Please model this.
Amino acid sequence: MAGQARNLKPELSFAEEVRSGLTKAGQKELPSKYLYDDVGSALFEAITHLPEYGLTRAEQRLLQRHRDEIRQAAGCPAVVTELGSGDGRKARTILESLRVCGRLTYYPIDVSAAALIRCNRELLGLGALTVVGLEGPFLEGLARAAAEREPGRPMLVLFLGSTIGNFDRPAAVRFLKSIRGLLAPGDALLLGTDLQKPAERLLAAYDDPAGVTAAFNLNLLARINRELGGDFDLRQFAHEARFCEAEQRIEMHLRSRRLQTVTVREARITVTLREGETIWTEACHKFSLRELPELAAKTNFHPEEIWVDEDWPFALNLWLAK
Ligand SMILES: C[S@@+](CC[C@H](N)C(=O)[O-])C[C@H]1O[C@@H](n2cnc3c(N)ncnc32)[C@H](O)[C@@H]1O
Model:
């Protein structure tokens, strides 16, 4: 059963965040969550099919291979909540395996309305399942799902796709602690984390020759034009993927091809970009196998299981709330 997504209000508006990111002293930036409007979500889905982007296939292999172990370790949950569900393909693998546990409620949380619609469609036909889409930010959604859950049976939280890598390391610790704060002891977190690998492999994944990732990144400027009355000339910006060795992360930037001035009406700003200056739009941190159990311990989880894909080094972590 699937209903219309419920809308949760974010703390800051899109216009306010664009204003603060583009008027920052030093590196200009835009929050990566705004990459995912209807067009961006469709482009992200296309990225997951690219030969260079092995991440999604690696995680899907691990979910397929270990879904029954996941069910057992998570204690046959009655509620599954997913942070950033996207199109729901990965959730389907888990939800199919959980059907033996009885009636299930699934809360997909996503800022993208289009992703939630696709997610609903993906899950049609799975019996004994109630889908409650929550359109809005991760923690607001999780708080809502936690408040509505029936006491007594554990909840499983899915946080897949290495979306945790979008946070820098200190922010990831804070975020995981916030998740933990909304869970009860014994609840489970299934966390997908992309592992460190050679820079060339990562750069090819985030700057594919067909230009799909470039379109995904540039669409953020197109979205600002559409929704906030911006006048970005997209042809005057280039997609750039960089590898930062010290932080073990890929950074996505939009590089200004020339000196230019841009106005965003709804954000009440006019900004100047120098030739070569960039707007930082996304960070994707890569993890070492050593740091993952430490991360669990720091955030009050017990690292119960870790499964690793060898073809595209990727780790699926099953943690239990202490
Ligand atoms: C990298 S994609 C991963 C999608 C899917 N989980 C997967 O593994 O393929 C991140 C997803 O999280 C959503 N998202 C990003 N930031 C968000 C936020 N702050 N709150 C809620 N959803 C967010 C995006 O719309 C997108 O669907």
